[in-house]
Structure to design on (639 residues):
């Protein structure tokens, strides 16, 4: 195996690994919130799947593509694993909090990069790609909150979707500096991850608009 | 008229009849819930239409098809009839409960079969077809509950969408036993109907995930 | 410049002006409601954008088109201006109420006409065009209310979406009287505007369905 082929294979498996833990973390967040609202097993699974694939599905519909999960059972299986995980490790989930936060953030970063690249490939301008990247990363969480009948969390608390936007801007900075797609993607992903981690560590929040008296 | 032609014509009219009573029942469920929330006539009609056509619309969008109701006024007319029915027979609806439950279940069964067949025709794998069948049957009710700002009922109570999943699995069992499409469809529909009726009769419910303390 | 070219240019700029003030007014309505729910700046912007472009996006998805805003930054920039406006003129918004009501209604009228024309061009029947016009005008407000977790306002109060339906019927009356597209569009827009203004002035409401005891 040549070096470049080995690199390629390793990249593929790393992306698949990130995809796996990200999907798992997204699905688990949906399943836990659904359980807290006393959804049954089926409902919890649907909310888990929706959290995991909802953002990418919106992106694919807007791009006119066939949704990615319709010909690849990977994401439904991941969500089933997430359901089993929540049932089995129910009492340990709080202690696993940091791990799931990390996995969730890896998912956020990866899905943002995927959304940006698919949109650029489809020939849309860079600001559309940033929107699509953000939607891929954060859209599933919005659908989840609509299903459990809560005001979407990402609109009110912490910097979540904004991390995707910042990552997206970095992507285009790199692209304009003539970096390769891989470099743009890696830098973008790292920036999303760093922005999200720093936001949570230092409780960074966007200001709320003042009321109108 | 030959026997096979007569059979064909009767099948068509039976499917149309089922489509009619199913659409009527779905629309009525939306209109009643909207009225309970004090929606005006227009709002009640929109919620009724959404309940009736929402699932199939999601399916068609995901499959990349033009939504079925956009070139066929049948479903909007059915929903208008449903609105008139609710206004005229307002006080009798409770007494008609069993009839509407039956019609609703016929709709659920038919829409599930339609969703499965459209998805298979489009060339997707069988598990995607089961998801699409379930979405066609149960998706309108989810949109209805989002519009009236309630947690979707099917995620919390009774076996509803799961009946579609069980029916879908039967469809593929039959397909693998080399049954014709018509046989697969009929068996699937009967299973959905039976599963739903038994679930309500014996109060069968899926377990709720235990909380995390 | 010939007369007809001048007319054309003036029409274009008038439509652009209406598009601008309409988008602005739609976005401001979303931003204000989001602020009242204590959304942060990012959340308020997303709700503003959704209110402004949500209806047209649903229309384009149903028609199988690429959503209009994905290759034209105009609408995102308008929504950003709306956000700045709400921040800067926060205390004056109540006093500007009548102006924003007018702009909102201009937007409603223009978006209805756009929806109708796009749907007819795509070859769908006139009743589908009326639905699409109504969805283009009123759909963004429904998405806005789902995001802020309220029962959609247009289903309960005042004549809003019904103004679009009435305008749409007028459009087809004109079309059947052999009027040009421009005349149909102008008459439809004026009727939407008039219906909405009269409805608010005289507190016209549709009846609410009586409960079932």
């Amino acid at each position: 195996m040549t070096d470049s082929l080995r690199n390629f294979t390793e990249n593929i498996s790393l992306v698949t690994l990130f995809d796996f833990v990200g999907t798992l973390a997204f699905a688990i967040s949906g399943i836990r919130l659904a359980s807290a609202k006393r959804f049954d097993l089926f409902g919890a699974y649907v909310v888990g799947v929706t959290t995991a694939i909802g953002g990418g599905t919106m992106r694919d519909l807007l791009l006119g593509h066939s949704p990615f999960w319709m010909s690849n059972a990977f994401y439904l299986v991941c969500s089933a694993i997430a359901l089993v995980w929540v049932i089995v490790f129910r009492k340990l989930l709080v202690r696993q909090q940091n791990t799931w936060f990390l996995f969730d953030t890896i998912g956020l970063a990866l899905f943002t990069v995927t959304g940006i690249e698919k949109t650029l490939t489809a020939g849309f301008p860079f600001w559309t790609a940033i929107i699509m990247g953000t939607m891929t990363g954060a859209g599933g969480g919005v659908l989840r909150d609509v299903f459990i009948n809560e005001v979407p969390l990402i609109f009110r608390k912490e910097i979540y979707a904004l991390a995707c936007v910042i990552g997206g801007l970095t992507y285009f900075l790199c692209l304009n500096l003539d970096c390769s797609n891989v470099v743009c993607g890696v830098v973008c992903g790292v920036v999303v991850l760093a922005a999200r981690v720093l936001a949570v560590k230092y409780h960074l929040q966007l200001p709320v608009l003042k009321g109108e008296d």
Remarks:
- The longest helix of chain A spans residues 3-36.
- Chain A touches chain B at residues 31-32, 34-44, 46-47, 57, 61, 64, 66-67, 70-71, 73, 76, 86-87, 90-91, 93-94, 146-149 (CB under 8 Å).
